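Could you show me some protein's one-letter sequence and the numbers that encode its backbone in two labelled lines?

___
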Amino acid sequence: MAYTINSQKCLKCGICIDECPEKAIVIIEKVTEKDGLNLYTVRIEPTLCNECGVCISHEWWCPAKAIAAA
């Protein structure tokens, strides 16, 4: 089972980047707003993902629930 990130739901908060135990969620683009807020466009690297399910197992992991099983 593969996982995907719904770009329409994603808040670009970046929480998932540091929390993935396999570091399979990688940054495509980082934009720093004028107020200093960093926004991240990310993707799941299939060669690094071992499909452990951690990214979808905790409610706090993705506040927008943008990560789902494909």
